[in-house]
Amino acid sequence: xxxxxxxxxxxxxxxxxxxxxxxxxxxxxxxxxxxxxxxxxxxxxxxxxxxxxxxxxxxxxxxxxxxxxxxxxxxxxxxxxxxxxxxxxxxxxxxxxxxxxxxxxxxxxxxxxxxxxxxxxxxxxxxxxxxxxxxxxxxxxxxxxxxxxxxxxxxxxxxxxxxxxxxxxxx
Length: 171
Fold this sequence. Notes:
This protein is an alpha/beta fold.
């Protein structure tokens, strides 16, 4: 694992293939919030500080979904997506940005992204983006994920960022 890869506690589980979500974002609050949401709905988050560290690990990573921020120092998300090359086929890449425009969305799709999400996330789109990207069937668990996405999105918009020691409720 590269120096930029981060772990949320001890999250190793067997049978997690296809449920892994790599979160590549330079903002620690975003990585943390998304990571807690993903864990709460049964995904295994693997956060990365930047695109270079993700690219270094990508050839050896298990297939999964990648949440990739556009604006990052050094390599931006679109450069990361373009440089993923043949390894891109093993990942469903969702590009996310707080500064979206049509040209950026089109470039992301041309480079192989399966979706494009604007921050702050639309509750419903974020709740179903990962199962859709991974082509998972809709189940009652997906409905639960949607309700959790709505709750987390409201926390994020309100500035609340849970910590690992919190009880995951707003103050």
